[in-house]
Amino acid sequence: MTLIFSYFRTRHMALLPPLFLAVFALVFLLYGLPLYAVGYACALCLPVYLAALAVSFARFCRRHRTLTTLLACADLCAGNLPEPRGIIEADYQALLRELTRLHESLLGQTQARYDERIAYYTLWAHQIKTPIAALRLQLAGQDTREARASLCELMRIEQYVEMALCYLRLDSDGTDYVFSRVELEPMVRACARRFAPQFIARRLRLELVPMEGAAALTDEKWLAFVVDQLLMNAVKYTPAGGVIRVSASEGPVLCIEDTGIGIAAEDLPRIFERGFTGHNGRQDKRASGIGLYLCRRICDNLGHTLRCESEVGRGTRFFIGLEKREVLAE
Predict the structure, then answer these.
(1) Is the Cβ–Cβ distance between 316 and 234 less than 8 Å?
(2) DSSP 8-state class, residue 214
């Protein structure tokens, strides 16, 4: 019925013949003329009118199906539009083709600028790793408080460089996901080892609960990035003498918890939004609001889940659900 109403809303001329017959009948009635003459003319014209109406409605339905199919098609093209009926429809189609051409041109320019930006920052990241490695070598032989503090800051710089690269590559077509069976305990230990200087400098205790047999189908490099970000946040917001604990449960579900300052209840629903820093970030003055956003995006791309529980003054727990989920593969 909706299609019929739409047809008559766009085809007002189809309602004119019945209106004309009604006018004729009214005139005949007012002049006292026999109405059977109008009825006879109506009987003669009605089959022709209904046939023309049926043909017009069938064309309308066919064009509607064609346009609906084009709209649902992934490779929508203005060149596949049905033949125009009249000069106005031809003008609309010409306008649509011109807009499509302009859109494709702008899209190509935007993609070219995006690729250029990706190439530049990728080169920048690789170039900046050279002086970072040189500084790390210079500090490696020094066992002083200043050297250890410099190593901690150097690791933070490396983390920020990796965050920048990850942020740029997330939306690219060539994200290099390689799925395999990953043992969780060796991967977590490798991540924790990178933070050893910061654990020592801040006098934090790390508890790694044995994860014998715990494994997941995932990309080890990208999952390690998520674990690094969560450990970095735990170190950042846990005061001296606190505890950071990493464990795994059935699912498997990887849990990273700390005894830090916690997250305010009103901030919890938004911590995975891009650029959201919350109460803790505003006090820290250096938070970017990107780390947890990247973690959520990466987990979504890997087919994992990420959720958080926290209580102010008691600590925070992040749960990475590594259960099998369907992911889109290239």
Answers:
(1) yes
(2) -
Residue 187 near residue 223 (C-beta atoms within 8 A): yes
Integer CA distances (angstroms), 287 to 209, 257, 273, in order: 30, 20, 13
182 pairs with which residues across the strands? 216
Which has the minimum average pLDDT: 67-76, 168-177, 300-309?
67-76
pTM above 0.85, yes or no: no
Nearest residue to 288 via CA among 233, 325, 235, 327: 233
Separation of alpha carbons 168 and 115, rounded Å:
10
Check residue 74 and give its pLDDT.
47
Q: Which two tokens stand for residue 91?
A: 């003008």
> What CATH number matches the domain at 176-321, 3.40.50.2000, 3.40.50.10330, 3.90.980.10, 3.30.565.10?
3.30.565.10
pLDDT digits (tens, 9 = 90+) for 116-173: 887 887 788 778 877 877 887 777 777 777 777 787 788 778 888 888 778 777 766 5
Sequence-distant (≥ 6) Cβ neighbours of residue 69 within 8 angstroms = none
Q: Is the pLDDT of residue 47 over 60?
A: yes
Q: Where in the sequence of the chain do the CATH 3.30.565.10 domains occur? A: 176-321
